[in-house]
Write a structure and sequence with these properties.
This protein is mainly α. The chain is built from 13 helices and two strands. The chain folds into two domains: 14-138, Peroxidase, domain 1; 145-270, Orthogonal Bundle (Peroxidase, domain 2), CATH 1.10.420.10. 46% of the residues lie in helices and 2% in strands. It is globular. Bound molecules: protoporphyrin IX containing FE. Protoporphyrin IX containing FE is lined by residues 31, 34-35, 37-38, 41, 73, 75, 139-141, 143, 148, 165-166, 168-169, 171-175, 178, 213, 236, 238. Residues 1-294 form the Plant heme peroxidase family profile domain.
Length: 294
């Protein structure tokens, strides 16, 4: 039911508003492109791409923002507010926050040098968000390949989609607390890399110290992530699981040696991820403020 021309009559300027806001934002701070991409992933995996992740907590509803995978970690909410305000001023009350996020994530990738794709539109915004769904639907960095495979399969995403989408970690950062166990305990890690990362991520304390997920080109959307995995330099335990003598090794190699194949598969998998259980028709609502229900 989603369609690329959904707003052709009601808001033809939508894509150019988002594009220019993202262009400015990425020029000021390239890491925001990665943060938008992750916001979209965390939206889609929890009850579908319905902007539930954007809702602030209220006295009666504890939402997703403070779920363990998101708390003190997700960023980009202020940029979404600013894009939404611009969209509202041009096209009042017709464009959903869920669609804005889908377009912003695509533009973030593309502006960092990654592929582009057509974003089908027509998603509507949820009236609820769930802390416990966020906890149970988002894969943790400690996950092994079988957990990753089954969590993605439950969203209709294959091993190939899992591997391509994990290539999102070619940009952005992680906190020490997300990779400490990997750099101190894992054995399938390049020793020089582990030593290097330990310098700014102590075994105790400093949880918020950041490191790039792809140290070779942290703000360029390229195939560097897969080359790192082949060298035992995946930052997260879950990253290295994709190249650990398992069923996805061949995909990591293919993407590492053939960045065009990665770009094509990533774009295809993003379209699939973006169509996980959307609210359409008269379901949900078009939120006026992405942080709260109308
Ligand atoms: C396969 C399972 C995945 C796991 C276990 C995982 C886990 C993580 C973790 C732990 C972080 C660091 C968060 C922090 O320390 O604050 C992170 C960052 C990130 N993830 Fe994932 N992720 C996965 C898949 C994905 C997918 C499918 C996407 C998008 C398509 C994605 C996009 C990102 C981005 C862009 C960042 C950097 C965010 C920033 O710099 O603000 N991840 N991920």
């Amino acid at each position: 039911q989603l369609s690329p021309s959904f707003y052709a009559q009601s808001c033809p300027i939508l894509e150019s508003i988002v594009r220019s806001a993202m262009t400015q934002a990425v020029a000021q701070d390239a890491t925001i492109g990665a943060s938008m991409l992750r916001l979209f992933f965390h939206d889609c995996f929890v009850n579908g791409c319905d902007a539930s992740v954007l809702l602030d907590d209220t006295p009666t509803m504890v939402g997703e923002k403070n779920a363990p995978p998101n708390r003190n970690s997700l960023r980009g909410f202020v940029l979404i507010d600013s894009i939404k305000a611009q969209v509202e001023s041009q096209c009042g009350a017709v464009v959903s926050c869920a669609d804005i996020l889908a377009i912003a994530a695509r533009d973030g990738v593309n502006l960092l040098g990654g592929p582009s794709w057509v974003v089908a539109q027509g998603r509507r915004d949820a009236r609820t968000a769930s802390l416990s769904s966020a906890g149970s639907n988002l894969p943790p960095a400690t996950a092994g390949i079988s957990t990753l495979a089954s969590m993605f399969a439950s969203k209709g995403l294959s091993l190939r989609d899992l591997t391509a989408l994990s290539g999102a970690h070619t940009v952005g950062n992680a906190r020490c607390s997300s990779f400490r166990a990997r750099i101190y305990n894992d054995t399938n890690i390049d020793t020089g890399f582990a030593y290097w990362r330990r310098q700014e991520c102590q075994s105790v304390g400093g949880d918020y110290s950041l490191a790039p997920l792809d140290a070779t080109s942290p703000t360029i959307f390229d195939g560097g992530y897969f080359q790192n995995l082949m060298a035992g330099r995946g930052l997260l335990h879950s990253d290295q699981e994709l190249f650990n003598n398992g069923p996805t090794d061949w995909l990591v190699q293919m993407y590492g040696y053939n960045p065009a194949a990665f770009a094509a598969d990533f774009a295809e998998a993003m379209v699939k991820m973006g169509s996980i259980s959307p609210l359409t028709g008269s379901m949900g609502e078009i939120r006026l403020n992405c942080r709260k229900i109308n």
